[in-house]
Amino acid sequence: MPASRFQHTEEIAPAPRHWALLPGAGFADSFRIRLTPQLAQLNTTEITARMMAAQPAWISALLALRDRLVAPLGLKRASDNGAPAGFPLLMAEPRRVVMGLDDSHLDFRLCVEKSSGHAAEATSDANEVGNVGDIDDVGDQWLTVTTVVRTKRWLGEFYLAAIMPFHRCVARTLLQGLLRAPGRTD
């Protein structure tokens, strides 16, 4: 299969199960990539760890800058959590990992899911939370990263607007970096 088949990151509509991660959320987006056959053999926890480990230096620098800027406002710093990319792990299943943080200005969830091609194409929420797609099916495997945000107060709205230009770029970069990561199994 040509390598370009695995390079494309696409934005898709978040499913109702994603919105359900954070009732009352006002923002959500989802990006996905087709996994290489070698990455498709890994569970979602392993894939997520690789994705975060392959984080480029400019993303780490942005998080460090963010921490310095929000410290005077009393917001939680990503570096305080000791978790991958500062996102505490809330749930880990073979096909789904959910990370997130609740803070005074906003709450967010980052959901990383692995699904088969037909499940990734589904626009309905026929697949419940524990059944994201049958990863044993023959065919393409997809990795979807969904961010869900519930803002609080004006500060949350301001913060979300300020980071939005960076957020989309970071999400796409993390997914594509997974495919280019040194030491990957393909």
Write the layout of secondary structure elements.
Layout: E1 9-12, H1 16-19, E2 27-34, H2 37-40, H3 44-53, H4 57-70, E3 89-93, E4 96-102, E5 106-116, H5 117-121, E6 141-151, H6 153-180
Antiparallel strand pairs: 1-2, 2-6, 3-4, 4-5, 5-6
Low-confidence stretches: 120-138
Measured on Cα atoms, how large is the radius of gyration? 16 Å
Order of helices and strands: EHEHHHEEEHEH
Mean pLDDT reading? 81
Compute the number of strand runs.
Answer: 6
Counting helices, strands and paired strands, the structural category is alpha+beta
Helix content: 25-40%
Strand portion, in percent?
15-25%
What general outline do the C-alpha atoms trace? globular
For the biggest sheet, the summary is: 6 strands, antiparallel
Spatial order of the strands in the main sheet? 1-2-6-5-4-3
Number of helical elements = 6
Alpha-carbon distance between the two ends: 12 Å
